[in-house]
Design brief:
117 residues; alpha/beta; two-stranded antiparallel sheet; 37% helix; 21% strand
Length: 117
């Protein structure tokens, strides 16, 4: 497993964002709900991408974008945890005030990671 993409459609609660990341960061394998009999070991380098639905949380005159940037920055300082699991972390807002209007930048970040950048 090289890339994990988590899509958060509800809001930007730090407990949700950090909880999803921490659960994945503590693991060494990935099991998807649709394929419970298939265990995918993490690669040496693993990118965790958090995609937030900005239309639900990026409203005018709020600091949610800054909050998301702070969460991303702080998590990036922590990885990798104990030298294993997730090695890279990115957070993207798609939609909403100041968010990306498409998934293009998400795809670019994943491509750069897979290309070794």
């Amino acid at each position: 497993m090289k890339v994990i993409v988590e899509i958060e459609e509800s809001d930007l609660k730090p407990t949700k964002i950090c909880g999803k990341f921490l659960q994945a960061a503590l693991a060494t394998h990935f099991i998807h709900d649709s394929q419970v009999n298939r265990v995918l070991p993490y690669d040496e380098r693993v990118l965790f991408v958090e995609v937030i639905d900005g239309s639900k949380c990026l409203k005018p005159h709020t600091r949610q974008k800054a909050r998301g940037e702070l969460i991303e920055s702080e998590i990036q300082k922590l990885v990798p945890l104990d030298g294993r699991g997730i090695t890279h972390y990115r957070l993207f807002f798609v939609g909403g005030e100041g968010g990306e209007q498409s998934l293009g930048r998400v795809g670019e970040a994943v491509s750069r990671f897979l290309d070794g950048a």
